[in-house]
Amino acid sequence: MEFETHYITPDIKLSEFNGKYFKTEVVFEHHILVWFISGETKIIQADAVYTFNAGDIFLIPRNQLATVINYPKDGKPHKAVAMYLTKDRLKDFYSKNKPTAKSQPLQKVYRFTKHPLLESCFASLIYYFEIGENLPEDIANLKIEEAVRILRSTDSSVDGVLANFEEPGKINLSDFMERNFMFNMTLEKFAYLTGRSLATYRRDFKKIYNTTPQKWLTEKRLKLAHYSILEKQKRPVDVYIEVGFENLSHFSYAFKNYFGYGPNALATGIK
C-alpha cells in the first residue's frame, strides 16, 4: 500500500507513504505539530516555501492555505508523526495557564529542528504505533500537554498563536485572492477564509472582477505558469503543481486552449 495512516488517539497519528510523491492542498482545522522520521515535505504558502527533512519538527497554524507535497527520500518512505492541537484542548489549557504573548495572526510555519525535548516527546509514542494499541486517554492528554509546554518554553511567541481562538473575519477579498489564487481549494473554503458565505463571496467577487471565480482562477494560474516556464525556466511537469492544477494532462490542455500552444512548446521555444 502506498499510503497508510495509523491513529493511537483521534489527535495523534503516524503516516507512511511509499509512492513517488503525495500532494494535497489543505486548510487545517486545528494546529498541527509534526515530527519527521524520514522523507521530505515541501509546504508552499502564498509568501513562503518551507522544506522539511528527517529530524525536523514543525507547527502549522490552523486556517492557513497550504500546498503540502510529501516525498520518500534516500530509499526510505515519507514517515511522520502528527499531533493535532485542537481548540477545545487549547482553550482548556489556557484557562489554567496565562498566555505570555499577545494574540497574533496565524501565518508563519514554526520550525523546531532536532529539538531534543520535542523529539523525546514524540519518540515515546512510537511503541504504541508498533504494538498497534490505542494510547490511554489520560496518557494522550499528558503527551499533548507536554508538547504544548515544550513549545511555549522554546518560543514564547507561540503562545500568541496557540491562544488565538478567533475565526476568520471579513477581509479584503481582492487582496486575499491575489495572494492565494494558486491554491486549488473549493470556493466554499475561499469564502470561509475571507469571512463570507458562499453566496456573498460570489456576489463580491463579481463586483470586483466582473467574472466568475472559476474562470478568474484558471486564467490567473495559467498566466503564472506561463511566466514560470518562460522567465524562470521551470519545467511544465514542476509548474502545474505549483500553480494549482490537479494533473499534467488537464494543465496542458487548458494551457494550449488559452495560449494557443502547449507548455512544452513554450519550454522548448517551439510555438
From TrEMBL:
InterPro entries: ExsA-like_N (IPR054015), Homeodomain-like_sf (IPR009057), HTH-like (IPR037923), HTH_AraC (IPR018060). The keyword Transcription regulation applies. Keywords: DNA-binding, Transcription, Transcription regulation. One of its GO terms (molecular function) is DNA-binding transcription factor activity. Residues 171-269 form the HTH araC/xylS-type domain. PANTHER family: ARAC-FAMILY TRANSCRIPTIONAL REGULATOR (PTHR43280), HTH-TYPE TRANSCRIPTIONAL REGULATOR EXSA (PTHR43280:SF2). This is Helix-turn-helix transcriptional regulator. It comes from Flavobacterium alkalisoli.
